[in-house]
Amino acid sequence: MTVVDVHAHVFPEIGRAEARRITGSDDAPWLRTTDGPDAGMMMAGTAEYRPVRRTLWDPAARVADLDRLGVDVQVLSSTPLLFGYGLETARAADWCRTVNDHILRYAAHAPGRLAPLCQVPLQDTEAACEAVSEAVRQGFHGVHIGNHLGDRDLDDGALLEFLAHCAEEDAAVLVHPWDLPSGPRHARYMLAWLAGMAGETHLTILSLILSGAFERLPASLRLLFAHGGGSFPYLLGRADNAWHRRDIVRADSPHPPSSYTDRFSVDSAVFDPKALRLLVDVMGAERVLLGSDHPFPLGEESIGRLVRESDLTPEERDAVLGGNAVRFFGLTRSPQKAAR
């Protein structure tokens, strides 16, 4: 069995001068590093954003981590701070190309072990589609996008056009919450991450369902939501109840929300065995993929432990730990097995 972690981030060693030159912004994200295992700082201009571990930018340290943790393959996505959705199109396209080139070089350190996803200038549909097509030719396994653009959710017409193009290119899509709710109520105790992220993903999934977007998107689209689908799996009964009882809820969706769980997948980053059990019961074991949020502190420290120690059947565990991801991301190569 191949163990595949589908939710893991990188932040390439992009310095401030390079970031400022490409984006034209003094507030552009960049990485400040020094020697040591935890000697990195994600920066936004002159502001310190978050301290980070060496594995975030050092592929040798990453592979050593994977060997220690018993993970054969990691699907790599950029840190959402790097998306660049606020840039004008030409600069955004150059920025995404730069980030993608860095990620390709990072993944090339261990072909078959590190599977890269690209990022795109999602604010411009034509440029985003061109970027995905180019990335597929370069060997990326799919694309990593934020769950919304300002007030536009993924059911927006232009964003649906982009998702349909991903289906045409056979590019898997990982959707990650970003641009989280702000203000005093979310500023305390990391509540923007603890509550805001779950709500953002829930909102996006329901927007796709209730708008009828899944009726218009190709069934071949491979769509994956991070963090266990946020609040969606646990509040699905509420959404179904509302669909049956209120015509305003079902106005654009011909079927109740529970009818659409076969149109997308989720990762397993829920950190609790009862939550994982419910997630598998709601989504089906074939649509849950191992995800850790590595190497951030809010991620699963012992990648896969929750799944391995769960009450899932052996067949379900094997599917979640790797079988589903191999199919979802087209990981046909056989990586060197990690140390167990």
TrEMBL record:
EC number(s) reported in the record: 4.1.1.45
Keywords: Decarboxylase, Lyase, Metal-binding, Zinc
Pathway(s) served: Secondary metabolite metabolism; quinolate metabolism
Gene Ontology biological-process annotations: secondary metabolic process
InterPro entries for this protein: ACMSD, Amidohydro-rel, Metal_Hydrolase
Domain Amidohydrolase-related: 4-331
Pfam family for this entry, one: Amidohydro_2
Keyword Metal-binding in annotation: yes
GO cellular component: cytosol
Gene3D superfamilies recorded: Metal-dependent hydrolases (3.20.20.140)
Domain of life: Bacteria
Complex and partners: Monomer.
Family, similarity comment: Belongs to the metallo-dependent hydrolases superfamily. ACMSD family.
Name the UniProt record assigns to this protein: 2-amino-3-carboxymuconate-6-semialdehyde decarboxylase
Gene source species: Streptomyces filamentosus
